[in-house]
Amino acid sequence: MNIDQLKATITTIPDYPKPGINFRDVTSLLQVPEALRETIRLMCEPYRDSGIDKIVAIEARGFVFGAAMALELGCGLVLARKPGKLPRATRAAAYTLEYGENTLHIHTDAIHAGERVLLVDDLIATGGTAEATVELIKGVEAILVGAAFAVALVDLPGLAKLSALSVKAHHVIEFEGD
Ligand SMILES: O=P(O)(O)OC[C@H]1O[C@H](OP(=O)(O)OP(=O)(O)O)[C@H](O)[C@@H]1O
Ligand SMILES: Nc1ncnc2[nH]cnc12
User: Fold this and answer.
1) Which residues form the Phosphoribosyltransferase domain (predicted)?
2) What is the Cα–Cα distance from 41 to 53, expressed in whole angstroms?
3) For the segment 129-154, what is each residue's pLDDT rounded down to a tens digit?
């Protein structure tokens, strides 16, 4: 499948979950086996020889892509979760996004100084979620190798936000006009 075919598997829902938001729904991509396989392959491509120790994947849709990539890259998987979900001691960072605000947590023993880490999520929009996760990763002095997304909403400031933080971002599919 080429990129246009992958993009065509993503459904757009206008005014969800709030008026004015064009919601790009990756669940329809996940339903197509070939699209899922090719998206994971392309998300992994820049990192095959990067010696990644751990992927930090963001709840909830980021878990799907992060788990598949961890298997393909042969690295560990760390879950960045919303409040009240992780059972042991955590570090936390707050953020805002297109349609709300929240906090992300990781277990304090999940990543260590000097480990080579890749941030993974399904989609980047304003970049608030990714920025909070960067703070969690850099806060333990791990080496943030990059950030990989299935989808980027390129008219929103997420990619520029990561670039300003000196984080190298990679995405497979992009949408304009959000
Ligand atoms: O770049 P941003 O503006 O921060 O937005 C991107 C985030 O928004 C969505 O998650 P959401 O918070 O809707 O959670 P979900 O995956 O649990 O549905 C998406 O999965 C990203 O994590
Ligand atoms: N427009 C959008 N579509 C899907 N997920 C999102 N997360 C933040 N903005 C989004």
Assistant:
1) 26-151
2) 18
3) 999 999 999 999 999 999 999 999 99
pTM of the predicted model, to two decimals?
0.97
Pairing of strands 54-58, 76-80: parallel
Instruction: Give CATH for domain 47-175.
Output: 3.40.50.2020
Q: Is ipTM strictly over 0.95?
A: yes
Residue 61 is among the residues annotated as catalytic for this protein: yes
CA 169 from chain centre, in angstroms, equals 10
Nearest to 6 by CA among 149, 119, 158: 149
**Is the shortest distance between the CB of 125 and ligand 1 below 6 Å?**
yes
Q: Per-residue confidence at 100, pLDDT binned at 50, 70, 90?
A: confident
As to burial, measured by CB atoms within 10 angstroms (0-12 exposed, 13-18 middle, 19+ buried), residue 27 is: exposed
Q: Domain boundaries in the chain?
A: 47-175
CA dihedral 77, 113, 102, 164 (to 10 degrees): -110
